[in-house]
Amino acid sequence: MMNLQSLREQVYEYLREEMHKGHILPDTILNLNEIIQRLGVSKTPLRDALIKLEAEGFVTIMPRRGVVVNPLTLEDVRDFYQIIGAIEGEVVKEVFPRLGVMQISALRQLNSEMRDSLRLDEFDTYYKLNLSFHNTFLNLSTNKHLHEFIMPMKQRLYDFQQRPYVKEWELRNCVEHDSFIDMIKEGNCAGAVHCMRDIHWSFSTQESYIREFYRRSADLSEKETGSNVP
Description:
There is one protein chain. The protein has helices at residues 2-20, 32-39, 43-55, 74-95, 101-119, 123-138, 146-158, 167-185, 189-200, 203-225; strands spanning 59-62, 66-69. By secondary structure, the protein is mostly helical. It folds into two domains: 2-69, Arc Repressor Mutant, subunit A (Orthogonal Bundle), CATH 1.10.10.10; 74-225, Up-down Bundle (Four Helix Bundle (Hemerythrin (Met), subunit A)). A two-stranded antiparallel sheet has the order 1-2. Helix 1 (2-20) crosses helix 3 (43-55), helix 5 (101-119) packs antiparallel against helix 6 (123-138) and helix 8 (167-185) runs antiparallel to helix 9.
């Protein structure tokens, strides 16, 4: 059981990394036999990994037809923003009494490093720092299921994209982070919640940047594959 569990996780991480790097694209039908041969595993850990990926929304298993990688629609993005914003807003309310000097310092340092990474066009570093910024307050929550629920949505928002960052948008995110930190420092819980839920994770507020981000991503995918990608 332990070996099967370990193999399932290894296959899962391999497929997620291939998606993250853009080696597996949306609307792709996975070649399961090729994956089995490449990884040297049996069908069981691959099946289990695919079941987990389907539960997280990355693929759809179609009996007798194969496994297709799900595209990300604008409606998906809108839904994810609404869900993530609502959750992070509630977490901010929950943990606000525990956001002290140490957390404020950590948030400022991470936001400063995010700006540095943008100046150097190190967008993968920026992405990881951004996750760390949000995890600074998310990790204070007592909800043990929080990360396993919210992370697949965040990963789906940015995976399959060939990192066509809109620098103006990313710099604006840093400014929003500054406002969020200022609200915490001032002891303004309602203001901090508003910044995170109604601005930072507001689809309508961010829509023009969102559309530009995914348009650039589609253009890059089309250039690499030589075909139109929705």
